[in-house]
Amino acid sequence: MDERGKKYEKVESFKYLGAMITSLNDIETEIKSKIAVGNKCCYALGTILKRRSISQSIKIRLYKTVIRPVVTYGAETWIVTYGAETWAVTYGAETWAVT
Fold first, then answer.
1. pLDDT bracket for residue 55 (50, 70, 90)
2. Domain count of the fold of the chain
3. What's 76's DSSP letter?
4. Residue 7: is its pLDDT beyond 50?
5. How many other C-beta atoms lie within 10 A of the C-beta of residue 70?
6. What are 2's strand-pairing partners?
7. Which of 6, 39, 54, 76 is 20 to 30 A off residue 60, Cα-Cα?
């Protein structure tokens, strides 16, 4: 694509300010991306979250202060469809099943 003498490459998706932007403006791709990052956080904190010596209230505080903000960053710009809501609810249920 040419614009004022500069060539631009057409891409299907790219990351901008932490958000996955697609050519079809598909929000489910963004939610899947955020869920993947949230899963990485859960995996990184897995040894802490599985310890029996740490109380449930501390584990919940870790979830609320570390994992949930990572997953919901930029969520105020999402246009939530039924499918996207299903992805988000499923992620929450799976996260709590692990802890």
1. very high
2. 1
3. G
4. yes
5. 15
6. 7
7. 76
Structural domain span for residue 58: 25-98
13 domain-assigned: no
Match 């004022």 to its residue by tokens: 4
- Beta-carbon count within 10 A of 4 CB: 4
Query: Token pair for residue 22?
Result: 């697609």
Residue with tokens 């993947």: 36
Question: Tokens in use for 60?
Answer: 């919940």
pLDDT digits (tens, 9 = 90+) for 23-45: 777 777 777 888 888 889 889 99
- Please indicate, yes or no, if residue 1 is contained in any of the structural domains: no
Contact between residue 32 and residue 80 where contact means Cβ atoms under 8 Å apart = no
8 Å CB contact between 48 and 54? yes
In a domain, 67, yes or no: yes
Beta pairing partners, 13: 22
**Tokens for 25?**
């403006």
